[in-house]
Design brief:
About 25% of the residues lie in helices and about 35% in strands. The protein is of the alpha+beta class and about 140 residues long. The two termini are about 35 Å apart.
Length: about 140
């Protein structure tokens, strides 16, 4: 299940496909772009570590330990709050900041519905489509 989280200051938006280790997603930063024009910078992220807690005090201790374990600026930590549980997630930036990874419509859809829907080009041939048709190249 995909997740969307906002940083405390509101300048970063995190989207991950799942909280499992190895899941991918996006980080969106409007302060690096031009917020008056709706231009943001995005990068790809990967979940490195996560933990589910029942109490908030234990999650704070774990969050501080993650800050000591991953001190680099490539690692970002955030908290997802749910009724009765708190999830602490640590992600690693795996690509550079770019302005054209996601379109503004895709970002809006991701924030509202918690999923990314990319339009697939039907003329584009992918590896999986070759194998579905029984064609090998």
């Amino acid at each position: 299940m995909s997740r969307v989280a906002y940083s405390r200051k509101g300048n970063l938006i995190f989207y991950i496909d799942d909280i499992e280790i190895g899941s991918y997603g996006y980080a969106i930063d409007y302060t690096k772009g031009d917020s008056s024009r709706g231009v943001s910078c995005q990068c790809r992220i990967k979940v490195v570590e996560y933990m589910v807690f029942g109490t908030e005090s234990n999650s704070k201790k774990y969050f501080m330990n993650l800050c000591l374990k991953y001190p680099s600026k490539l690692y970002k930590k955030f908290v997802l709050h749910y009724v009765g549980r708190t999830i602490v997630v640590c992600v690693k930036q795996i690509s550079g900041w770019e302005t054209d990874l996601l379109k503004p419509e895709e970002i809006t859809h991701m924030i509202l519905f918690g999923e990314v829907k990319f339009k697939k080009d039907e003329d584009m041939i992918t590896f999986n489509r070759y194998w579905e048709r029984g064609i090998s190249k």
